[in-house]
Specification:
Layout lengths: L24 E10 L4 E4 L6 E9 L1 E5 L2 E5 L3 E5 L5 E5 L7 E9 L5 H4 L3 E3 L2 E5 L3 H17 L5 H26 L7 H12 L7 H7 L4 H12 L3 H19 L4 H7 L5 H12 L3 H9 L14
Antiparallel strand pairs: 1-8, 2-7, 3-6, 3-8, 4-5, 4-7, 6-10, 9-10
C-alpha cells in the first residue's frame, strides 16, 4: 500500500504541486478501516492540519523516533509542518478503524487549536465520555457526506461540522487541564433525556432503568457529579427554557408553562418567581424591553 494513500493536496514534500491555496475549511475527509499493511509517511509534513478519530483497533504515530498509540476514543491532531509517520499498529489485531479530515482553519480558530502537545506537533485528546464520542462521530460523518457534494451549501455545512469538532476538542482538553473528573456517561445520558424530553413527567426509577442503575445509585451519582438532584436539574432546565420563551415569543404564559412541562400555570409562576425574583409577566416585560434582545441571566438563582 502506498506511503501516501491519503496524502493531502497541501503536502509540504513537493511545493511544485501546489497551484492554489485553498480557503479555510475542509480539504478532504473519509472513513478508513485499514489492515496492518496501511501506512502514511510524510517526512516534510503537510501545510494543513490532519485530525484522526479512532473508532476501533489501534493506530501508531511516530514523530522524531518517538511513538504514540491511538485506540478507540483517541483524537490525534497533527499541526502543519510536522514530519510524521503513522500506520496500523501491530497491537491492533490487524485493523485500524478511524475517521479523518485534512483542513485549514480560519484565523479565529487558532485559540481553540492551541492545545498541549503530547509530541512535537502532535496533539492527543482522549474522548472517554460516550456522549462526546457519539457527537464527534456524528460530526465527522456529516463532514464526510457533505464534502462529497462539491457545492457551496454542503461545503459550508461541512465547515460547520468541523467547527463543532474543534470546539468540542478545545472544551474537552480544557477540562483535562483543569483536572476535572470526567462525567459518568450514565449521568450525561440522564441529563440528555431531561433536556430532550422536558415535558415528560420523569421519575427516578424510570430514568434509572434507562441507564441500568438502581434508583438510589443514580440519585447519588447524579447529585455527586452535577451538584443538583435529578428533579432540581429538571426544574432548572424547564425554567431556563421557559425564560427564553418569555423573552423571545408572545405566547401566553399558560402555553409556555405547558410547553416546558408544568401541569399548572400557577405552579410555573410560583417556581419561576422563586428562581428569578420576579413573575413571568414582569420578566417578559423587562426582557423584551432590552435593546437588541440581549439576554438576562437565564440561569435560575441557586
Amino acid at each position: 500500500m502506498t506511503d501516501f494513500l491519503n496524502d493531502s493536496a497541501m503536502s509540504s514534500s513537493d511545493d511544485n504541486q501546489i497551484t492554489v491555496t485553498p480557503t479555510p475549511g475542509v480539504l478532504i475527509a473519509d472513513h478508513f478501516k485499514e489492515s496492518y499493511e496501511y501506512k502514511a509517511n510524510r517526512p516534510a509534513g503537510t501545510r494543513d492540519y490532519l485530525i484522526t478519530f479512532t473508532l476501533g483497533g489501534c493506530g501508531c504515530y511516530r514523530i522524531d523516533n518517538q511513538s504514540r498509540l491511538c485506540k478507540r476514543g483517541d483524537v490525534m491532531l497533527l499541526t502543519p509542518g510536522t514530519p510524521h509517520h503513522y500506520a496500523t499498529s501491530e497491537q491492533s489485531d490487524g485493523l485500524w478503524d478511524f475517521v479523518w479530515c485534512h483542513f485549514l482553519p480560519p484565523t479565529d480558530w487558532q485559540p481553540f487549536l492551541a492545545l498541549p502537545e503530547t509530541l512535537p506537533g502532535l496533539i492527543h485528546v482522549p474522548i472517554v465520555n460516550e456522549v462526546y464520542f457519539a457527537r464527534l462521530l456524528h460530526a465527522f460523518h456529516r463532514i464526510i457526506q457533505d464534502q462529497l457534494h462539491g457545492d457551496l451549501l454542503h461545503e459550508r455545512l461541512a465547515y460547520l461540522a468541523l467547527e463543532e469538532i474543534v470546539l468540542l476538542l478545545a472544551h474537552q482538553s480544557g477540562k483535562e487541564q483543569q483536572g476535572s473528573t470526567a462525567v459518568d456517561p450514565r449521568v450525561e445520558e440522564v441529563r440528555r433525556l431531561l433536556l430532550l424530553n422536558m415535558q415528560d413527567q420523569h421519575t427516578i426509577p424510570l430514568l434509572a432503568e434507562r441507564v441500568r442503575l438502581s434508583p438510589s445509585r443514580l440519585a447519588h451519582l447524579f447529585k455527586e457529579q452535577t451538584g443538583y438532584s435529578i428533579m432540581e436539574m429538571l426544574l432548572r432546565i424547564r425554567l431556563r427554557h421557559g425564560a427564553r420563551q418569555l423573552q423571545y415569543t408572545s405566547r401566553p404564559i399558560s402555553e409556555v408553562a405547558e410547553d416546558v412541562g408544568f401541569q399548572s400555570p400557577f405552579y410555573f409562576t410560583k417556581q419561576f418567581t422563586a428562581a428569578y425574583g420576579m413573575s413571568p409577566s414582569a420578566y417578559r416585560k423587562e426582557a423584551q424591553a432590552q435593546v437588541h434582545g440581549q439576554d438576562l441571566d437565564l440561569i435560575p438563582r441557586s
